[in-house]
From TrEMBL, chains A, B:
Native source organism of the sequence: Desulfoscipio geothermicus DSM 3669
Main location as per UniProt: cytoplasm
Protein name: 5'-nucleotidase SurE
Role summary: Nucleotidase that shows phosphatase activity on nucleoside 5'-monophosphates.
First-level EC class: hydrolase
Segments forming domain Survival protein SurE-like phosphatase/nucleotidase: 3-185
Catalytic activity field: a ribonucleoside 5'-phosphate + H2O = a ribonucleoside + phosphate
Manner of cofactor binding, per the entry note: Binds 1 divalent metal cation per subunit.
One GO location term (cellular component): cytoplasm
Length: 262, 262
């Protein structure tokens, strides 16, 4: 198995090292990751400056590529230019901190995985759902266990993009989950600089809620983590709201405007 | 109606000016937009440096806020700190260039709208689906026509996030659409700098395909634009793949690994 490994905490992050060790027994691990932390980059890509990949030697003597771009840039560049052959799977992580609920939209870790599946490769994002704990042991071990299962038979056809969060400490079990809603309250700290100009730091506390009327009943990822379970969420990347298509068509048909009058 | 207007081409972009004029008859338009072009930022947010909003005077004597951050930053800061009251709707655009298919995941324009709906406000993203044409007339007029319809009655409960693309020239009509798949081929141009180091420019041509087995039949956005129709796509922000939940549960149940052995 050829594994493309990336992340958004940067090529020297301990979470990436832990995952590199856990995946090594499964096959060739090719690391292409940002040269420094890129948290909160969402699915950003770099189009206004060129990318410069640089070979990096790890302490065990193996090599990886550090790229001065976003996680999505790394996956694109790896697939199109840096890897000798196409990967069998794209793995992103282990992120230091949770990627739960609505926050997956901001997540560089998840965006690397989404970039994988857009290009036709099954992909897994994995996060340690804690900023305090730096113990990646359980998350790494779980990745090493679940990835061969996902790659077996036709699993990747049915479920080809998976977001995993692992609680700090020993997990109580595994839950297959759906995404919760997470919005932030009191997010800005307002300050004034020595020259009298106002500036704002983004911070805030998460406020969680459960999206109603799910298509399929399932635990919510945020709750699973609170209860110390590993959360495994199948994702897709089609943002179409199919439930609203007929509604929107009726609304537009019922409008009094005519496009030809524009 | 209080409208929060943002974009990703920057506060001085002509597409924003066109939309500002088109929305003015509908109510108060509050502009909070990036201080410069932020294309391709995806749903990035700025957490490692503070944000500095700066008041900008437009040629008509009205004011807006320019923020040294991403479109998502602008919407967050507007809602939490800059606007005197909560908006009734968040509008993002007019983007100069298409935001179609899978590309919506990279789109700063769409991310501003998604940030609106995460915070509980209905939102519309609007793009002129052409890099060549700079004529925002039809796109601006269409926004002015559809937004009052979306805000009428309970429409926003059923359909609260809409992605609009308007073809260059006079449109032939309107299609309610689903997102297509768009991936890029030959995306990197490899070059060597005067010091012998390799660098890569991201570019490439889009390769479009139609996602199979949609939950509801509908035209694909990319096709609608090719055929010179306005494309109106309802979006949501729940990336859960509900179709894969049972499958993943069965796979995990059938695994030979035990979480307690970790």
């Amino acid at each position: 198995m050829r594994i493309l490994l990336s992340n958004d905490d940067g090529i020297h992050a301990p979470g990436l090292a832990a995952l590199r060790w856990a995946l090594a027994p499964l096959g060739e691990v090719h690391v292409v990751a940002p040269d420094r932390e890129r948290s909160g980059t969402g699915h950003g890509i770099t189009v206004h400056k060129p990318l410069r990949p640089k070979q990096v030697k790890f302490t065990d003597g193996t090599f990886g590529w550090a790229v001065d771009g976003t996680p999505a840039d790394c996956v694109k560049l790896a697939i199109e230019a840096l890897l000798p052959q196409a990967p069998d799977i794209v793995v992103s992580g282990i992120n230091h901190g949770p990627n739960l609920g609505t926050d997956v939209l901001y997540s560089g870790t998840v965006s690397a995985a989404i970039e994988g599946i857009i290009n036709g490769f099954p992909a897994v994002a994995i996060s340690l759902a804690s900023y305090e704990s730096g113990d990646f042991k359980y998350a790494a071990a779980f990745a090493g266990l679940i990835i061969p299962g996902l790659m077996k038979g036709n699993n990747t056809r049915e479920c080809n993009l998976v977001n995993i969060n692992v609680p700090p400490g020993k997990p109580r079990g595994i839950k297959v989950t759906r995404l919760g809603n997470r919005r932030y309250v009191n997010i800005f700290h307002k300050r004034v600089d020595p020259r009298g100009r106002t500036y704002y730091w983004m911070a805030g506390e998460p406020e969680d809620s459960v999206p109603e009327n799910p298509a399929v009943e399932a635990d919510v990822d945020v709750e699973a983590i609170k209860n110390k379970y590993v959360s495994v969420t199948p994702l897709h990347f089609d943002l179409t709201d199919f439930q609203a298509i007929h509604y929107l068509q009726d609304m537009i048909d019922g409008q009094e405007f005519n496009i030809f009058e524009l």
